[in-house]
Design goal:
binds S-adenosylmethionine, 17 strands, Rossmann fold, seven-stranded mixed β-sheet, about 400 residues, about 40% helix
């Protein structure tokens, strides 16, 4: 590779050599896929939160032991190098890629940053299966598009109580715009509805949960979110056939959309002719304590480039975290279904709080609310406020 690592970018505490970045601009926009080895600055917020979330995980679940981490789709190695540099309590950090140019660049980056990242060349699945005798606590799957092909191997690589971190960028599929692909890839019947961003998150967790159950494992979402062009999940993985049975019975189900009033329902339909989507995850999307600890990690790391953005996102999610087993409602969807004007979100939140319900904004939509009030009641509040405005 003649131009290997010509440009150097700073990300977190790392200096990362990237290749061909200057030739990958089209109309002032960076096209990371044009680079010989993929590097996307738009994913800095994803990696910043990853550093914070992994530290929170190590502090809570593995305070006394070195933690082995595997990232088998590493590209420049930026994520693994940052884990080795910025986390306390790491043991082996194993990075892999199928592309020899990526492997070479990731090795350059590990060495340039003075960290011991073991970089291996191969298919991510082979790398993960080869680790079955190594106690791995964290597997980070950050592919192009769908993570589905790698889930089985990642779950097998993880030891007891491991953390599976997953990115998905195939949002047209997960949000239901490509229904046939969704059925093939995630074994779920999806279609586009106003709440599709939350559907995307729940469909991906639902798929991973069913793969986990097939190997007598269960997952527990600690932090899940939708941002920009991707979904990101942090799932704790536990072993046990009974746990897996309970998870399937209690946390897998359907999400229903009622076109007549624009509401969404989780687990049970709220109208006679709903559109049903699933099976997907109907359990909680967050562990409030974990969200809080991740937020505190971000706040403490003043060097993070996306710190303000991450604090804003995690603060909203912290509000949502206690209400993870209900689906958000969209004021615009309710208003347009009932052909009424749309009241302000703050007015809807105030009214629901005055009525004694918990009601918060949601990161899934600027016109969304998450509340423990019945969705029909939220629709009634929207109607009443619209009539009064
Ligand atoms: C989106 S990039 C990874 C970005 C990286 N995780 C980061 O945070 O910057 C996906 C990488 O996966 C690699 N890849 C694609 N298919 C693979 C496979 N089956 N096994 C291992 N690596 C693969 C590609 O070569 C590419 O470098």
């Amino acid at each position: 590779m003649s131009r290997l690592g010509q440009a150097v970018v700073r990300e977190g505490k790392a200096l990362i050599h990237v290749d061909g970045i200057e030739d990958a601009y089209a109309g002032g926009r960076l096209e990371p896929a044009w680079m010989p080895v993929f590097y996307n600055p738009a994913m800095i917020p994803n990696r910043d939160i990853s550093v914070a979330a992994l530290q929170a995980y190590i502090d809570v679940y593995a305070p006394h032991r070195p933690v082995n981490i595997v990232e088998p789709l590493t590209a420049t190695g930026v994520r693994s190098v940052r884990y080795a540099l910025e986390l306390e309590g790491t043991g082996r950090v194993i990075a892999g890629d199928i592309d020899p140019r990526a492997v070479e660049l990731a090795r350059v980056n590990a060495e340039a940053n003075g960290v011991n990242v073991e970089v291996v060349e191969g298919d991510a699945r082979c790398i993960l299966y080869s680790l079955r005798d190594t106690p791995v606590l964290v597997a980070d799957i950050d592919p192009f598009g769908s993570p589905a092909p790698f889930i089985d191997a990642a779950l097998k690589a993880l030891g007891r109580g491991g953390l599976l971190a997953v990115t998905a960028t195939d949002l047209a599929v997960l949000e239901g715009s490509k229904a046939r692909a969704a059925l093939r890839r995630y074994m779920a019947r999806l279609e586009r509805i106003p709440h599709s961003k939350e559907v995307a998150v729940r469909a991906l967790i639902g798929y991973i949960a069913r793969v986990a159950a097939s190997m007598d494992k269960a997952v527990e979402p600690l932090l899940s979110y939708y941002q920009g062009h991707y979904v990101r999940l942090y799932l704790r993985v536990e072993r046990g056939a009974k746990r897996a049975d309970r998870m399937l019975e209690e946390q897998l189900g359907y999400l229903y959309h009622c076109p007549e009033d624009g509401t969404a329902w989780l687990g049970e339909p709220g109208c006679s002719n709903p559109r049903s989507l699933g099976p997907l995850w109907i359990g909680s999307l967050w562990d409030p304590r974990f969200v809080d600890m991740t937020l505190r990690q971000v706040e403490a790391r003043t060097y993070l480039q996306s710190r303000r953005e991450a604090i804003k996102l995690l603060s909203i999610i912290r509000g949502e975290a206690g209400l993870g087993t209900v689906v958000h409602q969209r004021i615009d969807s309710i208003a347009s279904s009932m052909r009424i004007s749309m009241p302000k979100r703050v007015a809807v939140l105030d009214e629901l709080s005055k009525m004694g319900y918990r009601a918060v904004e949601t990161h899934f939509s600027p016109v969304g609310v998450r509340s423990d009030a019945d969705p029909g009641l939220v629709a009634g509040v929207v109607r009443r406020l619209s009539e009064g405005s």
